[in-house]
Design a protein that fits this description.
The protein has helices at residues 12-20, 35-41, 57-62, 99-118, 146-157, 164-172, 182-198, and strands spanning 4-9, 28-32, 47-53, 70-75, 90-94, 120-123, 126-129, 134-137, 140-143, 205-207, 210-212. The protein is α/β, with parallel strands linked by helices. The chain has 2 domains: 4-118, Response regulator (Rossmann fold); 121-212, Winged helix-like DNA-binding domain superfamily/Winged helix DNA-binding domain (Arc Repressor Mutant, subunit A, Orthogonal Bundle), CATH 1.10.10.10. It has a 5-stranded parallel β-sheet. A 4-stranded antiparallel β-sheet has the order 6-7-8-9. Helix 5 (146-157) crosses helix 6. 21% of the residues are buried.
Length: 213
């Protein structure tokens, strides 16, 4: 787990405690006084986990698309009060803090992050999360159907425009002899959804030879 960096934000006391037990830890850690410093110095090439106060959950969630990380919130209140603020890769530890409990939480979040990162696929400036079936760009996200994901992945992997017959055969598994407007209908709906959320009219393109990304 040496490739993990624990980012403590506004946690000088906890940073001092971890420093005293550094010989027992299998991860690196660094403290930031505030989020401004954190976003400036964040190393996105590392597997980062954030530890901060529960009062910062709004800031974390507003910037969640800028970093794919687990979050551990520290709180002196009952964690059920914050259930509507906590997402899948986040958790809450109440004071008084147990170092052993904290390390266990870090291990769990790391494993979840590893699984989630392997399910994220980049298409141009977009990211598709295969687990949640969502596509992300610029802090915006859109829920996709399984067929829409299959279509986008297929188009992104091909190097030339794909005809409707090819898409029917390879994505829908239909006979190429079938007369259907299935592809056109799905592409039209998906284009509209992308335009509404991302204001992007050119993600899925087409010419005389077919559709392409």
């Amino acid at each position: 787990m040496k490739n993990i960096t624990i980012n403590l934000i506004g946690q000088r006391v906890l940073t001092s405690v971890l420093q005293e037990h550094k010989n027992l830890l299998n991860f690196d850690f660094v403290n930031f006084d505030d989020f401004s410093e954190f976003f400036t110095k964040l190393n996105k090439d590392k597997n980062n986990i954030i530890i901060t106060d529960i009062s910062n959950s709004k800031i974390i969630n507003e910037h969640s698309d800028q970093f794919n990380q687990g979050v551990i919130y520290l709180s002196d209140k009952n964690k059920t009060l914050f259930n509507d603020q906590i997402t899948n890769n986040q958790s809450v530890i109440n004071y008084p803090l147990s170092l052993f409990n904290l390390i266990e939480k870090i291990n769990l979040i790391y494993l979840k992050d590893e699984f989630a990162n392997k399910s994220k696929i980049k298409i141009l400036e977009y990211t598709i999360n295969m687990n949640t079936r969502e596509i992300f760009k610029d802090n915006k996200k859109l829920k996709l159907t399984e067929r829409e994901i299959d279509l986008l992945l297929f188009l992104s992997k091909t190097k030339k425009p794909q005809s409707i017959k090819n898409i029917l055969a390879l994505v829908w598994k239909y006979s190429t002899e079938m007369e259907t407007h299935t592809v056109e209908t799905h592409v039209h709906r998906l284009r509209k959804k992308i335009l509404d959320i991302f204001d992007d009219q050119n993600f899925i393109k087409n010419n005389k030879k077919g559709y392409y990304i």
